[in-house]
UniProtKB/TrEMBL annotation:
SUPFAM superfamilies: Clavaminate synthase-like
Pathway assigned in UniProt: Amine and polyamine biosynthesis; carnitine biosynthesis
GO MF: gamma-butyrobetaine dioxygenase activity; iron ion binding
Enzyme Commission number: 1.14.11.1
GO annotation, biological process: carnitine biosynthetic process
Matching InterPro entries: AlphaKG_dependent_hydroxylases, GBBH-like, GBBH-like_N, GBBH-like_N_sf, TauD-like_sf, TauD/TfdA-like
Protein name: gamma-butyrobetaine dioxygenase
Organism from which the protein derives: Paramormyrops kingsleyae
Top EC class of this enzyme: oxidoreductase
Keywords: Carnitine biosynthesis, Dioxygenase, Iron, Metal-binding, Oxidoreductase
Catalytic activity: 4-(trimethylamino)butanoate + 2-oxoglutarate + O2 = carnitine + succinate + CO2
Needed cofactors: Fe(2+); L-ascorbate
Family: Belongs to the gamma-BBH/TMLD family.
Protein role: Catalyzes the formation of L-carnitine from gamma-butyrobetaine.
Amino acid sequence: MVWGPSTGRRMWTAIHRCFTRAMLNPGGFRALRQLSGRGQAPLEIPVCPSSRGRCYQHTMAAPLPVPPQPMCTPSLGMKRAMYLERERQLEVTWENGSSSRYPLIWLRDNCQCAQCMLQSATARSLPLSHLDVDTGLERVLITEPSKVSLVWPDQHVSEFDASWLKKRCFSSSARQEMQDELFLNQRVYWGSELQIPTTSFQEVLHDDKTALAWLTTLRRIGIVYLKGASLEQGQVAKLSQRIGYLRLTFYGHTWQVQDKPKANNVAYTSGDLSLHTDYPALQHPPGVQFLHCLSQAQQGGDSEVVDGFHVAYQLRQQNPEAFQILSSLRVDFTDTGSDYCDFAVQSKHRIIDVDSEGQVVRINYNNATRDSVLDLPLEQVQPFYSSLRAYVDLMTRPENVLTYRMEPGDIITFDNWRLLHGRRTYTSDPVRPRHLEGAYLDWDEVMSRLRLLRRAVYGGR
């Protein structure tokens, strides 16, 4: 079936029913309504009446209902297909009167026949060196309303399905819809008023619809609570198997967050942890983090998170010069010690990474591992510190910080490229000290599983 706006609307309505309602600030609400207009989000989300964080307390969600099976949207038939010789394009007119154009070189490059594609791998086997980039076309034949055949000058025949072509239309709206289907790049921003979406750990493990809702919400909102995990180590590894595999780092496949003597990481102390992203000392920081609470502190130990993307956009609006500096200057990070094995890692990152369109795609900030080496011209040092302080001041405003307390059996899953997280000072019970088990995954594995779950639940590409 074609994954279109109506399918997206049904999916998000189902996800909305599945999760604890997300209380959003006005900016997040506007973003969500924009998504709703494109059929990508639930249509009715209340705005939290407080801007000071009184709505953050999470609640146990009801069991996830089975999302309704979306109806298959019929593919448009092709009314006419015309070769535009001058433009070297194929123009397809659809039954509803709209039209799409496709460059001939792209069509030839993407021939779906067994000679040009390795069908078992869905991979192109036609070398680019064999393509005539200025190719013409011998004949165009609509063999049935849903198929078109192209005969090339060398008499090779390519056949394309209407739904396959329609999804790959080169119009800006079609390209945007396809990119959002592939990457779910739209985000919902939030502050201290967010009520963390919550679901059952066991249902995520055993139900595809629940797992899909979990990963989709993790991508859009950036944080999801899972309740009801066993109070023993290994649950984050079990959760990772639902996706694929854990990311191995110098701290191991999993790691134990406890107050340790001669700690090799500031997380392994009982003091305050300032807001940070994990592991910017790596050239490719982990994309997703799991934390499982096995035992909570006697006093303190509450967790804090901030939507780093939301605060970055606040910085761009309020202090564009600081945003420009943090999104252009590369800063050194380091981490040295011994754990899974000994290590001495070094990296360079922009504090705020943006893509070619200026959209924020990753935050790289950890004050503990920011290196004393600062590879900047002398005259840029002061502006850098001023800009970084401006960003930190924004992220620590009460309206931007969401505070929550994990209880034994809770697993928090969050986007490490987007969220900054921290922890308040704590005092442990000497008999049963505070203990969290953590693990990392990369977004490549998470998005791969999300796409596979979406196909399993809804069908499609």
